[in-house]
Automatic annotation (TrEMBL), chain B:
<dbReference type="GO" id="GO:0004438">
    <property type="term" value="F:phosphatidylinositol-3-phosphate phosphatase activity"/>
</dbReference>
<dbReference type="Pfam" id="PF06602">
    <property type="entry name" value="Myotub-related"/>
</dbReference>
<dbReference type="GO" id="GO:0046856">
    <property type="term" value="P:phosphatidylinositol dephosphorylation"/>
</dbReference>
<dbReference type="InterPro" id="IPR030564">
    <property type="entry name" value="Myotubularin"/>
</dbReference>
<keyword id="KW-0443">Lipid metabolism</keyword>
<keyword id="KW-0378">Hydrolase</keyword>
<keyword id="KW-0175">Coiled coil</keyword>
<dbReference type="InterPro" id="IPR035998">
    <property type="entry name" value="MTMR6_PH-GRAM"/>
</dbReference>
<dbReference type="InterPro" id="IPR029021">
    <property type="entry name" value="Prot-tyrosine_phosphatase-like"/>
</dbReference>
<dbReference type="InterPro" id="IPR016130">
    <property type="entry name" value="Tyr_Pase_AS"/>
</dbReference>
<dbReference type="GO" id="GO:0005635">
    <property type="term" value="C:nuclear envelope"/>
</dbReference>
<protein>
    <submittedName>
        <fullName>Myotubularin-related protein 6</fullName>
    </submittedName>
</protein>
<dbReference type="InterPro" id="IPR010569">
    <property type="entry name" value="Myotubularin-like_Pase_dom"/>
</dbReference>
<feature type="domain" description="Myotubularin phosphatase">
    <location>
        <begin position="124"/>
        <end position="500"/>
    </location>
</feature>
<feature type="binding site">
    <location>
        <begin position="273"/>
        <end position="274"/>
    </location>
    <ligand>
        <name>substrate</name>
    </ligand>
</feature>
<feature type="coiled-coil region">
    <location>
        <begin position="517"/>
        <end position="544"/>
    </location>
</feature>
<dbReference type="GO" id="GO:0005737">
    <property type="term" value="C:cytoplasm"/>
</dbReference>
Amino acid sequence: MEFSELIKTATVEDVLLSRQGLPDVRGTLCITSHHLLLSSRPRGDLELWLLIRNVDAVEKRVCGSSGSITLRCKDLKVLQLEIPGTEECLNVASSIEALSSVDSVMMLYPFFHRPPSLRLRQGWHPCAPERLFQQLAAQTSRWRLSAVNRDFSACPSYPPAVIVPAAVADDTVAKAARFRQGGRFPVLSYFHAKNGTALLRSSQPLPGPKRRRCLEDEQLLGTVVAEGERGVIVDTRSAQAAKQARVSGGGTEPRSCYPRWQRLHRALERGRPLQESFARLVEACGEPAPSVERWLGRLESSRWLGHVKAALSTACLAAQCLDREGCSVLVHGAEGTDTTLLVTALAQLILQPACRTLEGFQALLEREWIQAGHPFQLRCARSAASPARGKREAPVFLLFLDCVWQLSRQFPFSLEFGEQLLLTLFDNAYASAYGTFLCNSEKERRLCRLRERTPSLWARLEQPEEKHKYLNPLYSHNPLPLWPCVQPQGIQLWHGFFLRWIRPCRHLDEAWEEMRRLVQGDKSSLEEGEGKGRAGPSPRLGHGTHAETGTGQGPGVGLG
Amino acid sequence: MEHIRTTKVEQVKLLDRFSTSNKSLTGTLYLTATHLLFIDSSQRETWILHHHIAAVEKLPLTTSGCPLVIQCKNFRIVHFVVPRERDCHDIYNSLLQLSRTAKYEELYAFSYNPKQNESEQVKGWQLIDLAEEYKRMGVPNDYWQLSDANRDYKICETYPRELYVPRTASKPIIVGSSKFRSKGRFPVLSYYHKNKEAAICRCSQPLSGFSARCLEDEHMLQAISKANPSNRYMYVMDTRPKLNAMANRAAGKGYENEDNYSNIRFQFVGIENIHVMRSSLQKLLEVSGTRGLSVNDFLSGLENSGWLRHIKAVLDAAVFLAKAIAVESASVLVHCSDGWDRTSQVCSLGALLLDSYYRTIKGFMVLIEKDWISFGHKFSDRCCQLDGDPKEISPVFTQFLESVWNLTEQFPQAFEYNEAFLLQIHEHVHSCQFGNFLGNCQKEREELKLKEKTYSLWPFLLSEQKKYQNPLYNPDFSPELTLLEPNTVSFNFKFWRNMYHQFDRSMHPRQSVFNLIMNTSEQNKQLEEDIKELEAKIKQRNGRSDVVLVKEQEQTAHPAPVALKSPPCFQKEQPPLPVNDAVRTIEGSNTADNRYSELVSEFSKAEPAVVSLEYGVARMTC
């Protein structure tokens, strides 16, 4: 396939662009294989770039001799293009539609993107579990690094190296893998050095309707919890749903076969309902002037904040079992790639101060989301506005980011990074110029040779001029666990994300800047300060520079 | 004292309101003439003023004792369990008596003595001078003058003695107009915008019924409109919903008929009455007080209470008013029914949007003195200072404070004061500890001789103003008379957690940005002063010859501000922000943060060592 086949009209003159909260721009619209480019006329002093992959939905309306296109982006911004000429309008719309839904990973922009300041291969972490194990080895000998998944045969969605109990041999592990959905056998996610408890994750076991058992799986879990100790299995499905899963071959660990493990069910929403919840909330946020009742009603019926509360409380439950009750914890739902990772990653953030630095958080994401096999490509293919409602999309990662944001609100000094990082991560998970969030698993990434062929987002975030945007000026190391308040009164709507393009935030940004200045006691920081970067593009629009924006979506200034 | 049968009960449990695991503190309960005091085993004190008690309830006896629930007007709810039923009964009865006061003279303010001498007391009352304030606004001037019509409260009992009216409004017009207005509250000046030469005026509803007219009243409005040289028409804002205003006509009251008044633009803005507001708050408190609430129950409860809708309505009205003045240069006359509830809300908020002076600490005090206290908002009735008609109680002033809080959230740099200031004012509106808010109008206050017998709140607040300063305040944020334009789209109205859960520590953010910034800027100032002092000393000691040494000294002194990034290094020099009242520590809790709790150890001593853990382990015993 050639991109040129998809581009029916490459340039249109005299296009008017309108955006929320920003002045209109008139100019020439160009469509390239990965970007939509608008350069203002007559002076050409403004160049706006949009990664076409960022387009979630295209709505076209033809009226007389001209037409208008509404682009709903995955990062929730909405762009309106007034295009003279109906044919051009339809052509532009269908070109954008075609380009934004290119199937092949290898055709995506990261494979073509060569930022001058970055080398390929730079910033690609070595295998994350290995790094974790290096730290672990100094603390305990009960765990070992296993190469049982070297060739992805035991579990296609796991990385090649995983951490398993030292007492269990590789062939036992391989057999246990066959008793777990998708081969996702229990592996170590986090070791709580304070009292030697462990956080494990897996997928559901497969007892099925015949209540099959697997001695190897029982043995594997049996060695985690010593005689007289207690383990807790946090099942992220309701007891009812877990029971029903038996019909299709799944199920849970029965108490009789896993005597030291106690099971707790905490139903977390996933899949389609979660995606719909997200879409409903975004729709509610987009309503121009709702009454307070209507707004609260729509906020309620979206149920999003309920999901945030449930995710946080479940993570707290797991963390509390580890830290306070001295129990090891195994987390799983059904597939073990979504809510499971949500819980294990949040629990680590709650317990482990090292995860709360910029670097530590990246390592956490790499380990618990990317290499742990969260299917980013499937889950983040579409955002809230897409008319094509697929079955595989679900904003689990967004839910995680929202929970992290809630933590950052309740513990404003304890995370080294700020809201801007969370926004950037969301943007890049859904449409990126970098390869970091591409594909669904390590196996796929190796096949695509991402490390050799695409630049890494982590490398970009490491660059000093980028990095300072994401740092929290209030940060100071906090060695204690972060126990958040999960009462509804303590859970807030993430305005900075859901209303990012809607609410005017100049005053908030200025206040933030002032706060940064006060805390850092250093006026020079003002000069380099970009605020939260959210307002980043606007002051630079006038210069038409090719500096990349905080959203990292490509050359030039993001359409924002 | 005759109400107190038991002064001390031991082994009383104080339950955590939002704990599902029935966690509690055990301690001793004391009953004094003015306060209820609970001291727990770690010597932490909880003081509750009797006047703050809104309701006491005795729940059915349980195995651990007799539960006693006390609801306070500052939204604190305490849940005690008293071991013996007789003690509980005694305390219950005593509190019922103590929390109900029949006479003003029995209120705390009349016995409260802050150890000031008489001249300090007098000076305290002179701190806010409304005559000075009108001068600041630019009146009297060519168009407006001080009227002595109400000097002896003869025309309107609930207005102050000093009133500003248009120069062209003669005494007969004033008298005539006042007879045509409910409770005699004729149109008077509330705020004068000197740049636009436009005025905010206030009054009560006209007694128009279905067809009555009053020429003097029509003249009065014309005089107001003519007192504004820059605009011919004026707005008349009826802050009530249209239906309510129409219903009032049947009782001989009502609203202005545009046909009878020349050049007025009449506008309803639809703020509900005190009864709707009271029940709305009741619903809000029921929801927020529920244990184990789900997010959806909370949101639907919030929605059903209508509370945020009312706040939005009040703020929308204020924005309308402020825009009429700032954009159209039109004068506005505001009224509701009696002109002391919704009218006070809208006039004061409108002025706050128009004039940055009211966004300073002192200016806010002036604003409250002017539009609320002097114009006769019935604080005594609305806040139930004396045992009276429960139908008169309404959170009108609370709504005003909440509207201001909403503005501070939208404009973090525009206000000199912070949330704690608003909360503290709210606290004292109900505490009856100071004289300012006692009574329903100025006349009543004079009769009570409050200025001799009680103290003013304002000097007390000013003396600890450090606590109330917004560290992000930027006086240049909006030059003197530029309009603050808030966005009143629905999602900007949030539940005010720190008001309604002020005392539920587990709900607050665990770390307070505000404290950190406050401390840091305090230290900055302190260190800068230290540097200056040291430099001065060096100069003194070495004379002018030793310039080199001074420079050296400067070099060693300068790294200090850089080191400010890590405030904990400066623990010793760090004077913790004074929090003298153990009951009211609204600062964010630091329970989970060792270093900061060290830093602010002075006022975090009162905190529980363990955070409540409510994530479900309690139910793990399956």
